[in-house]
């Protein structure tokens, strides 16, 4: 996967939301077949549900794919020019950089809107038939779309973020720091922790509570069904935690190894990660610090070759600045006869 990400980073980023949405759709289909289908008792409701699936799914998926494809293709001109080491106009490059940083948010917005509108569309489609609807449908259809949408949106967000940071950031931010880009709203560490808490606890527990208060669907065992949904929620929560943990642990490990190298006297190390969050700022400042230490060491060695290392260190340590200093000194002149 890492090799494919390096060879085709734009394609991998474009395909990043596919698996999360397939998993969300699989849960949605299973839930509808198991819980919702037995509730479609009135004549014509089941056929209307099938017709809505046939009409809504192509519309929703095509619209979401079209918007997502447009966002990805908008990065392609700059991507190709950067790969060929060609110059990209500054305004275009900054615009594409901002779009790249916000790409996970765009993906989450597209996904969340699609699932939310899907729940509304199915309820409205069934309601306008004029046939009596089981009240449980107003519980279970939103639960079906809500849990499925949560799976697709959260997992898609983190996978897109991973793909952009490892595949596209090194190219688009070769000579710039993402954290210093103006007009961006990257996900902060606090927000990342909040999303993990929601993913790991609130959503699985919330799903179980919804199932607890929702009237049981005919033909289902509420206890076993609730346990199954809870297990699925916890599994995806753990996967979210794995992705979040990797995004936090990796820069910490990189910084730790680089710091150890500096303590051993290696001043040529640089942390190559490109991040737009707090880790990006920390990594950028660390790299600047190491660069400053390296330049100071080079100056000390060069200066010390002419005035002596001890004198050079004292001058560099005191750093009188451009204004200079006034001191009383004693100078001894010695003339060696016949030298």
Reported for the largest beta sheet, the result is: none
Query: What is the succession of H and E elements?
Result: HHHHHHHHHHH
Low-confidence stretches: none
Number of helices: 11
Class of secondary structure makeup = mainly alpha
Extended strand count = 0
* Helix fraction bin: over 70%
Tally of individual domains = 2
Q: Write down the overall geometry.
A: elongated
Rg estimate, integer Å: 30 Å
What does the average pLDDT come to?
A: 82
The proportion of strand residues reads under 5%
Distance between the termini: 75 Å
How does this structure look, described?
- This protein has 339 residues and is mainly α.
- The protein has 2 domains: 188 residues, no CATH class; 53 residues, no CATH class.
- Helices cover 74% and strands 0% of the residues.
- The protein has 11 helices and no strands.
- The longest helix is centred in the last third of the chain and has 42 residues.
Structure in a nutshell:
The protein has 339 residues and is an all-alpha fold. 74% of the residues lie in helices and 0% in strands.
What brief labels describe this structure?
11 helices, 74% helix, mainly alpha, 2 domains, 339 residues
